[in-house]
Design a protein that fits this description.
With 184 residues, the protein is of the alpha/beta class. Helices cover 39% and strands 21% of the residues. The two termini are 22 Å apart.
Length: 184
């Protein structure tokens, strides 16, 4: 039986990567997809593979990504190896973009979407604390925070404005198969 693929989406600063890492600690079989991004690896913040524009273009042309998109002046790719993980019957989760969900659903019809949000003041504080973006970049990211999900995309909603533990519990519950939820 193929595994389940989850896309976790939401505005920058909502805590998607933090929630994914915490869920993986509780669900050891969960595969965290390591994105490829045209950003220096030293930028930190999440576990990703930083590559140049040229390397990203080469990998894209070689068919090494099952999904790819552009946002915030960067290119993002989901490595094709995720298909192997799913073929093993494992669950996989990737940090995606709301704008690419229609394409992702076309490639993976059973894709499950988790939409993480946080109050604007929480987002602003988290983005500033990262120290990666200028004031202008933070303002642009906050403006994009209001963008909703594409039409026809249903999602599990998680508000990560408050205690991290509450949001982690909500994510872990969303990732558990229905059979496990009923038996626990």
């Amino acid at each position: 039986m193929p595994g389940a693929l989850f896309a976790i989406v939401g505005p920058s600063g909502a805590g998607k990567d933090t929630l994914m890492r915490a869920a993986a600690q509780r669900l050891p079989a969960l595969h965290l997809v390591r994105r490829v991004i045209t950003r220096p690896s030293a930028a930190g913040g999440e576990d990703f593979e930083g590559v140049s524009e040229a390397e990203f273009a080469r990998r894209l042309a070689a068919g090494e990504f099952v999904l790819h998109w552009q946002a915030h002046g960067l290119r993002y790719g989901i490595p094709a190896q995720v298909r192997e993980v799913l073929g093993e019957g494992r669950q996989a989760i990737f940090n995606g973009s709301r704008a690419m969900l229609a394409e992702a659903r076309a490639q993976f019809p059973a894709l499950r979407v988790i939409h993480v949000t946080a109050r604007p003041e929480v987002l602003a504080a988290r983005l500033a604390a990262r120290g990666r973006e200028s004031t202008e970049d933070i303002a642009a990211r906050l403006a994009r925070a209001e963008i909703g999900l594409p039409a026809g995309i249903e999602a599990i909603e998680i508000d990560n404005s408050g205690a991290l533990e509450a949001a982690v519990e909500a994510l872990v519950a969303a990732l558990q198969p229905e059979s496990e939820k009923r038996s626990s």
